[in-house]
Design goal:
It is built from two helices and six strands, in the order E-H-E-E-E-E-H-E. The protein is an alpha+beta fold.
Length: about 120
């Protein structure tokens, strides 16, 4: 089964990322997930201040705003897609991810298979 792991970082009151881990921690995790053969793809995301949100209103007009401006105190920092036997294994990998520490979280969701 394929699972998407969304990596969320915590933000402080000023909107700055708190916690996190060292680049070396990410390198170790990336090496482990690749060597285990479960990593399909993934990427960190650029600074969230460069994001744009697109909505289409009732008239069919697109409305574009800068960035995601939710009241949440976390921001999507990147993702991995893994191919593992079941949810328990996906959750094990999520717990090993450096993004799950220091106030961060990993959302794990199965990918839908509309072809099968």
């Amino acid at each position: 089964m394929k699972y998407l792991m969304l990596i969320n970082a915590s933000l402080d009151a000023e909107g700055e990322v708190v916690g996190g881990c060292t680049p070396e921690g990410w390198e170790v995790f990336y090496k482990e997930i690749k060597e285990a053969g479960v990593h399909l793809h993934g990427s960190p995301l650029a600074d969230f201040t460069t994001a744009a949100t697109v909505r289409v209103d009732d008239r069919g007009e697109r409305v574009i705003t800068d960035g995601p401006f939710a009241e949440a105190r976390e921001v999507l920092g990147g993702y991995f897609v893994v191919d593992v036997p079941d949810l328990d294994v996906a959750l094990d990998w999520a717990a090993r991810c450096p993004g799950s520490r220091d106030g961060g979280s990993i959302v794990v969701r199965p990918l839908a298979d509309y072809e099968g």
